[in-house]
Design brief:
3 domains, 30% helix, binds flavin-adenine dinucleotide, Vanillyl-alcohol Oxidase, Chain A, domain 3, 5-stranded antiparallel sheet, Uridine Diphospho-n-acetylenolpyruvylglucosamine Reductase, domain 3
């Protein structure tokens, strides 16, 4: 069966009308249709979902259950990457852990395909599906911070901007990513790189507790003391183990006005800049976060950019940065004292919702001349090179202390394209793959959170994989949560 066709069919529209009462949207048509709805099982088989059961779910939940035709259905199924136009059979818009538990139980009892939507930034589109149940956490988006305990509590569907804002208001901070409309959920479960991670570690290193709904529908509060294996697994193992409805993060006292900004050189100087960076970056302090970007900027042209955030005494930062500033002839040097949120939001528009995008990435353990040459020689103005710098505190955590596997990396390189016209899909995907291939010999392992084609979960998780399969086998033996970098449940 063509699942998309189904969802667009008159039957689906009729069912939508039939279901509207449970969503509090009574219409005259609502009582006229009495049918079931077609859906897709975990293994892709056709399923029939009884109207009465869907209605019961909608009545039991505090948030709405939405079918095609519901006024908020299209908004809920639309995720950040415009490449993914998928139509779930139903969307459970959850308002609480109890709602999530009911939705999970509904799916588990029927072997129904499940997608979990946090912030909706999955590059490869794992948070939406055709024909299954989307568990939509977008309304569970509250973040609070406590100055006394220096902890933040975030609901599972919150965005990183809310995490930054809640902490900063109290003069505190934790590691958050570089685009403020990314979700706390997927970001944290996969690792969580950010501009402060050399000092405070990855997001997973700062999770002190979580609330999770596992495949049996049980709501569990987990920590290093409570369900420690599960707590270990969610810190790097992605959404494999359940729906995380809440996170608790460690916060740190923070001076938000800091030395930060970008230095730009023409791309013709990229080799000089990268050769210098390859040596210089190995000896940087934990306070210094600086990494290279190569891109074509409108009205500027092809450039190599160094993004800088210095989380410490500005005078010491100026001194540490001086050698980089002396390289070549920059077009602009905009590193200055400014509020942390300037950098934390300055890519929000460029990475706006609806863009079509494809990305690959790889972990670099050590810079080399070969890597510099490959980046310079393979530069493609249709694409951009981005990065997440690691090292520092990221590297000091033991390889199997969390499920995040790439502790040895100095930097993650991201190769990506963003465009609007679907006619460009094939060309730009092929170009991104070619660029990645040229640099691949200098990288090892990849970040699950930013990859379309990474199907090597076993190899990529390295020594963590066996324990991950055991935890998966214990908490999700039927692999209900499979739309992620999937870990096979141990028998
Ligand atoms: C523009 C952009 C900028 C980015 N910047 C960074 C960055 O600075 N640092 C970084 O480390 N990564 C970054 N990423 C990658 C990012 O970490 C992943 O895309 C991440 O998965 C996004 O999480 P989300 O909740 O928004 O995504 P979603 O699309 O909602 O979900 C992604 C995956 O996580 C699962 N998931 C989400 N929330 C939950 C939950 N609460 N419980 C269980 N499973 C859940 C989903 O099922 C899915 O498998 C960026 C991505 C984009 C598109």
């Amino acid at each position: 069966m063509d699942r998309r066709l189904f969802c667009r069919s008159a039957v689906a529209a009729g069912v939508a009308a039939a279901f509207l009462p449970a969503c509090g949207k009574q219409t005259p048509e609502a009582t006229q249709v009495d049918t079931s709805i077609a859906a897709v099982s975990l293994d892709g088989a056709e399923l029939e979902l009884e109207k009465a059961a869907i209605k019961e779910l909608g009545e039991a939940m505090s948030g709405p259950v939405m079918l095609s035709g519901h006024p908020q259905y299209d908004g809920a199924r639309t995720i950040w990457n415009g490449m993914h136009d998928k139509r779930p059979a139903l969307i459970a818009r959850c308002m609480s852990a109890d709602d999530v538990s009911k939705a999970v139980t509904f799916a588990a009892e029927r072997d129904l395909l499940v997608a979990v939507r946090g912030g909706g930034h999955s590059w490869p589109g794992k948070s939406v599906c055709d024909g299954g149940l989307m568990i939509d956490l977008s309304q569970m988006n509250t973040v609070t911070a406590d100055a006394e305990t220096q902890r933040a509590r975030s609901e599972g569907g919150a965005l990183l901007g809310a995490l930054d804002a809640a902490a900063l208001e109290k003069g505190l901070v934790t590691t958050a990513g570089v685009v403020s409309h990314t979700g706390v959920g997927g970001f944290t479960l996969g690792g969580g790189f950010g501009r402060l991670n050399r000092k405070y570690g990855l997001a997973v290193d700062n999770v002190t507790g979580a609330q999770i709904v596992t495949a049996d529908g049980v709501v569990r509060n987990i920590s290093a003391e409570q369900d420690p294996d599960l707590f270990w697994a969610i810190r790097g193992g992605g959404g494999n183990f359940g729906v995380v409805t809440g996170f608790e993060f460690q916060l740190y006292p923070f001076e938000r006005n800091l030395l930060s900004g970008s230095i730009l050189w023409p791309v013709a100087q990229a080799r000089d800049v990268l050769e210098f960076y390859a040596e210089w970056s190995a000896g940087l302090s934990d306070e210094m976060y600086v990494g290279p970007v190569m891109a074509q900027l409108p009205e500027v042209g092809d450039v190599i950019v160094m993004d800088v955030v210095y989380n410490g005494d500005p005078a010491a930062g100026e001194k540490e940065l001086a050698p980089l500033r002396a390289i070549g002839k920059p077009i602009a040097d905009a590193v200055t004292m400014q509020d942390y949120t300037v950098m934390q939001t300055n890519s929000d528009v460029a990475f706006g919702h609806g863009i079509r995008s494809y990305a690959k990435n790889g972990m670099v353990k050590e810079w080399s001349q070969g890597l510099v040459d490959a980046l310079v020689d393979a530069y493609d103005p249709r694409l951009f090179l981005a990065n997440h710098v690691a090292g520092g505190a990221v590297k000091r955590v033991g390889e199997t202390d969390t499920a995040f596997p790439h502790r040895n990396a100095e930097i993650m390189l991201v190769f990506a394209a963003g465009w609007g016209d679907p006619a460009m899909d094939d060309e730009l995907i092929a170009a991104t793959r070619a660029l990645y291939k040229a640099v691949e010999p200098y990288m090892g392992g990849y970040y699950d959170n930013i990859d379309f084609d990474g199907h090597e979960a076993a190899g990529n998780y390295g020594p963590a994989y066996q324990r991950l399969t055991a935890v998966k086998g214990q908490y999700d033996p039927g692999n209900l949560f499979r739309l992620n970098s999937n870990i096979a449940p141990a028998a």
